[in-house]
Design a protein that fits this description.
Elements: E1 5-8, H1 18-27, E2 33-39, E3 46-47, H2 50-59, E4 64-69, H3 73-83, E5 87-91, E6 101-104, E7 107-110, H4 120-132, E8 136-141, E9 158-162, H5 178-187, E10 192-196, H6 204-210, E11 214-217, H7 219-222, H8 227-241
Parallel strand pairs: 1-11, 2-4, 4-5, 5-8, 8-9, 9-10, 10-11
Antiparallel strand pairs: 2-3, 6-7
Helix pairs in contact: 3-4, 5-6, 6-8
This protein binds D-xylitol-5-phosphate (DX5) and zinc ion (ZN).
Length: about 240
């Protein structure tokens, strides 16, 4: 069974007091920090660039779990690795051919219109860039993208199953993603499976019972009166659901 790891998402932190906020979750036993990068194209929002990642790298020893919600991960993976990322997650939808992608609600959703829907060059370039820098590579899929699209699962260390439409913190956990988490766990017993979005004391047990072991939590940790205590409670709940 894979070890439970909790990654507080800095998107929900107070950036005017970022050092204090990071120290709170360090005190609560965070395993890594989740850093959301948004380009205003892949998602309808902007967040956290290279300079901020460099600054964060200087004030913590925790591993940085970069989540690239950007259209061109192949162009930025090397730079984010140099800025201090320890693992880099790109979206499968971002390296798909244009014809295999459709815009839906607040994010991109992959629509499978033919067998070979990836832009192979960009997929390979993204993974190669991350590997060249010796970082962990991970791929994310949006809520309605099927697990089956991850035919290259053996080339990555982690899969991120989005449990909200990416772009914003504070949304409600989408329950219908839970069976997909179970499917991913069937596809690989050894890979890390991360869930991101709406993870709180109520939803965490379902995600972990289905096979998730890396838990991103923004609002439920940073907006709690005591983030360290909230993180500890989340871990207790997750560990109690492990292997259920
Ligand atoms: C959403 C981001 C998440 C976000 C999660 O696009 O990828 O990492 O910070 O926030 P909560 O935990 O508030 O749903
Ligand atoms: Zn994220």
């Amino acid at each position: 069974m894979k070890k439970i790891q909790i990654a507080p998402s800095l998107l929900a932190a107070d950036f005017a007091r970022l050092k204090d906020e990071i120290q709170k979750v360090e005190a609560g036993g965070a395993d890594m920090l989740h850093v959301d990068v948004m380009d205003g194209h892949f998602v309808p929002n902007l967040a956290i660039g290279l300079g901020t990642v460099e600054s964060i790298r200087k004030i913590t020893k925790l591993p940085l779990d970069l989540h690239l919600m950007i259209m061109t991960p192949e162009k930025f993976a090397l730079d984010f690795a140099d800025a201090g990322a320890d693992s880099i997650t790109f979206h499968a939808e971002a390296v798909a051919q244009d014809y295999a992608r459709k815009y839906k609600d607040r994010g991109y959703s992959m629509q499978l219109v033919c067998k070979d829907f990836y832009d192979r060059k960009r997929l390979d370039a993204t993974i190669d860039a991350i590997r060249r820098k010796g970082k962990k590579a991970a791929v994310a899929i949006n809520p309605d993208t099927d697990a089956e699209v991850l035919e290259f699962i053996d080339r990555v260390d982690m899969v991120l199953a989005m449990t909200v439409w990416p772009g914003f913190g504070g949304q409600k956990f989408i329950e219908s993603v839970v069976p997909k988490v179970a499917k991913l766990r069937k596809m690989s017993a050894t890979i890390d499976i991360e869930v991101d979005g709406g993870v709180d004391l109520e939803s965490v047990g379902k995600a972990v019972a289905a096979g998730a072991n890396v838990l991103v939590a923004g609002t439920s940790v940073f907006h709690a009166p005591d983030p360290a205590a909230a993180l500890r409670r989340l871990r207790e709940k997750a560990e109690a659901s492990h292997g259920v």
